[in-house]
Specification:
alpha/beta, D-Maltodextrin-Binding Protein, domain 2, 4-stranded mixed beta sheet, 2 domains, binds beta-D-galactopyranose
Length: 414
C-alpha cells in the first residue's frame, strides 16, 4: 500500500512538472534538416529559448515534406499532435477542415497580420475567416542556380530563353561539367516541371496546374512540356536517382555541376557554404518565366494542444511574424519575408530580387501557387501529377502518353 501511495505521489509530481515543462515548451515537427535550413531554424529556436520556451525538435528529413506529413498523420491519429508543424498550402486547409488546428486570431489582430501578410499567403493561413497558421516565408520555385566559374568557362552568358538554356547546357558538357545537378525524387522532378509549365505562359500554368482543365492537360503544349523535360533529363548525370536536393546543390557549389533548377532554399545551402551571390553564383528565373513567380510559403500550422501549451504556441506564432525575426530568418533561409512591409536592405542580391519579383508578380497577376509544393491543389491531385511526371522523367511514358496520363490521373484524383 505504502509503495502504491508513493508511486501515485510520484506520478502526480511527475505530471505536475510535465505541466510546467509543457507550459514553456513547443514541440516542432519539420523537414528542415539540410545545412541552410537547419541554420535558419536555429534562428527560431534561439528566439524562443531567449523567451524561456524550450524547443523539442521533431525533424523528419525529406525535401518537400511528404515524409513529414506521413508522420504527422500518425501522431494526430494517436491523439498526440505536435505543437507546431511546418506545412504547405492545401495541406494546411485540409487539416483545418478536419478541425485539428487551433485559433490564432488574438495574436493576429494584436500584430495586425491582416494588413501585412500578402493575400496569396492568407489564403492558406486562414480557414473560415480564422487564422490557423503562422506564415514564415515566401519561397519560389522557378529559379536557376548557376556556378560562376562554370558559367565563365562556358562563355559567361546567362540564358534568357529555352534556346539559350540548351546552348549553355551543351557548353557545360563540352567543358566536362555535369550540365544539371539534379536529384531524382518525385518532388524535385515536379519542381522543374513547375518552371517548364510556367515557361509556356501564365495562362497555361493557370489552366493546367490550378484550374485542372483536362483538355489543356492533354494538349499539344503539354506534350511540348514533356518533350522539354525529356531534353533536360538528357543533361543530368547517371547517378541522379534518389539524390537529395542539397547534394545536388553541393554539386553546383563545388562546380562539379553547372546549374540546378530549385526553389530558393537552395540559396541557403550556397550561403552556408560561404558563397556570395553575384561573385560565386548567379540566381536567375528559369528562362521564359521572367516576370512570373510560382510560390510556396512555409507556415507553422498550430495544432489543438492542451491549454497549458497554448501560451508557448502563441508566443511562437508572435515571434514568427515579428519584423526582426522575418529578417533574421529569411536572410539565412533564402526566402522572402511573409510580410510586405519589410525593408530589403539586409537581404543579398538574390533576396532583393526575390522580394521585388514577388511584388511585381503580385501586382501583375502573375503570382501563382507552386504545384510541386502544394500551393496549386490538394495533395491527392499533386501526388497524381507527381507519379506521371516522375514516370515520364524515368522513361516510363513518351511525351504524348504522359500528357494523356496526366489528364487521366488528375481526372480520377479530382
Ligand atoms: C520545401 C519547403 C522549403 C524547403 C524545401 C526542401 O517544400 O518549402 O522550405 O525546405 O522543401 O526541403
Amino acid at each position: 500500500m505504502k509503495k502504491l501511495l508513493l508511486g501515485t505521489a510520484a506520478v502526480a509530481l511527475m505530471s505536475a512538472s510535465a505541466t510546467v515543462a509543457n507550459a514553456q515548451s513547443v514541440e516542432v515537427l519539420h523537414w528542415w534538416t539540410a545545412g541552410g535550413e537547419a541554420a535558419a531554424l536555429d534562428v527560431l529556436r534561439q528566439d524562443l529559448e531567449s523567451q524561456g520556451i524550450s524547443w523539442q525538435d521533431m525533424p523528419i528529413a525529406g525535401g518537400g515534406g511528404s515524409d513529414a506529413m506521413t508522420v504527422l498523420r500518425a501522431r494526430v491519429t494517436g491523439g498526440n499532435p505536435p505543437t507546431a508543424v511546418q506545412m504547405l498550402g492545401f495541406d494546411i486547409l485540409d487539416w483545418a477542415a478536419e478541425g485539428a488546428l487551433g485559433n490564432l486570431d488574438d495574436i493576429a489582430s494584436e500584430q495586425g497580420w491582416d494588413e501585412v501578410v500578402p493575400e496569396a499567403l492568407q489564403a492558406f493561413s486562414k480557414y473560415d475567416g480564422h487564422w490557423i497558421a503562422a506564415p514564415v516565408n515566401v519561397h519560389s520555385t522557378n529559379w536557376v542556380w548557376i556556378n560562376n566559374d562554370a558559367l565563365e568557362a562556358a562563355g559567361g552568358e546567362l540564358p534568357e530563353s529555352w534556346e539559350d538554356l540548351i546552348a549553355l547546357l551543351d557548353n557545360f558538357r563540352e567543358q566536362g561539367i555535369i550540365p544539371i545537378g539534379h536529384g531524382g525524387q518525385d518532388w524535385q522532378d515536379a519542381t522543374i516541371f513547375d518552371a517548364v509549365v510556367l515557361s509556356m505562359g501564365t495562362d497555361f500554368y493557370q489552366s493546367t496546374m490550378i484550374d485542372l482543365d483536362l483538355d489543356a492537360l492533354r494538349s499539344d503544349t503539354m506534350v511540348e512540356v514533356f518533350d522539354r523535360m525529356e531534353t533536360l533529363r538528357g543533361y543530368v548525370d547517371d547517378n541522379f536517382s534518389g539524390r537529395d536536393w542539397n547534394i545536388a546543390s553541393a554539386m553546383v557549389i563545388t562546380g562539379e555541376a553547372g546549374m540546378q533548377f530549385m526553389g530558393d532554399w537552395a540559396k541557403g545551402e550556397f550561403l552556408a557554404a560561404g558563397l556570395v551571390p553575384g561573385e560565386d553564383f548567379q540566381c536567375i528565373r528559369y528562362p521564359g518565366t521572367q516576370g512570373s513567380v510560382t510560390f510556396n510559403a512555409d507556415q507553422f500550422a498550430m495544432f489543438n494542444v492542451d491549454a497549458a501549451q497554448v501560451e508557448a504556441q502563441h508566443a511562437m506564432a508572435a515571434s514568427i511574424l515579428s519584423p526582426e525575426f522575418q529578417v533574421a530568418f529569411n536572410t539565412v533561409k533564402g526566402s522572402a519575408p511573409a510580410r510586405t512591409d519589410i525593408d530589403d536592405s539586409a537581404f543579398d542580391a538574390c533576396g532583393q530580387k526575390a522580394i521585388a519579383d514577388l511584388a511585381e508578380a503580385s501586382a501583375n497577376g502573375t503570382l501563382l501557387g507552386s504545384m510541386a509544393h502544394g500551393h496549386a491543389n490538394p495533395a491527392s491531385v499533386k501526388n497524381a501529377m507527381y507519379d506521371v511526371i516522375t514516370g515520364h522523367f524515368n522513361g516510363e511514358y513518351t511525351s504524348e502518353e504522359a500528357a494523356e496520363e496526366l489528364s487521366l490521373a488528375v481526372e480520377s484524383a479530382m
